[in-house]
Design a protein that fits this description.
Radius of gyration: 19 Å
Strand content: 5-15%
Shape: globular
Keywords: Metal-binding, Nucleus, Transcription, Transcription regulation
Subcellular location: Nucleus
InterPro entries: PAS_13, Zinc_cluster_trans_reg
Number of strands: 4
GO molecular function: metal ion binding; RNA polymerase II transcription regulatory region sequence-specific DNA binding
Main location: nucleus
Helix content: 40-55%
Length: 229
Amino acid sequence: MHTSAAKKANVQDQFYLTAADPKDGRIEDRLNEVINAKYQAGFLKPYNYVNGYARLQRYMEQYMSSDSRQRILNVMGMFRPTFRDVAQSLTDIDLILVEESFERLLLDYDRVFSAMAIPACLWRRTGEIYKGNKEFADLIKVPFDKLRDGQLCIYEIMAEDSIVNYWEKYGNIAFDPKQKAVLTSCLLYRQKDSDTGAADKIIETTNKKHLIPMSCCFSFTVRRDKFNM
């Protein structure tokens, strides 16, 4: 057991080293190297979207009106069964490949976000934010590290009407391959400049005294994998 644990630790250490300092060469080769190291370390696994939907359900029950909840549930009733059917038809290897595709997307957007000066973030279909740029962190006044690993959800920084609007527009294009981008508006919340150290409060939307609403125009783009997910 001791040898096995040491071997696992070595593989994980190798992943961290590879991710921090990949070899020089083609971008595709570097992506393959990082993703393979993550898989070998046991960090690349199928993502549990059930937990993501459960998190959204808890948020709606705690912070949103029954009318808004029902409108969002009506939309989800259209696309969740299809997602579920596709996922159940896939093997474990297929699901890992789906996650590998998402990892490639995250790595690709390292370059995209560093090259653009407008606030931007990337989230999963259940809303968890997995990457953002400094401009987006500055916009909503949260630490940059808060925009990773699903610590914050896109709906947690929106006003109630904007959350409903987002999910309804997403539902309209989720399975239409001819459409992938939507331009719309929303009301976002940001921390007060004086409210330092209050990053976690942004999801406490029942108490908006520490938050400032901002009217924004924004666009979101749906990226699909080879299974049309």
